[in-house]
Specification:
4 strands; 4-stranded antiparallel β-sheet; alpha+beta
Length: 94
């Protein structure tokens, strides 16, 4: 994937209903970029926790961002002024 770059970002309302969208979206994005099956549930759980923390802190909007480049998928979750949560995962070429 060294020659390719992909950027995907979505804003979700900071409410529990957003977790349903996240549960549908995240595994598909992660799988599309070659994240191994064993890693996907742990990454989705971590994303859900990050989104839930933003909602608990009173955030109205949660921003979820996936950036794939140079064999890595960088994931960031941020919410209305709260500290961002970030992680990276090695991905296979697609």
């Amino acid at each position: 994937m060294a020659d390719h770059e992909f950027f995907f970002s979505i804003e979700l309302p900071g409410r529990p209903a957003s977790l349903g969208v996240l549960r549908e979206l995240a595994p598909r994005v992660l799988g599309q970029f070659g994240c191994g099956g064993d890693a996907v549930p742990a990454l989705v759980d971590a994303l859900e926790t990050a989104v839930a923390r933003g909602a608990e802190s009173g955030a109205f909007t949660c921003r979820l961002q996936f950036v794939a480049r140079d064999g890595r998928l960088d994931i960031a979750v941020s919410s209305d002024g709260g500290p961002p949560w970030r992680t990276s995962h090695a991905i296979s070429a697609v």
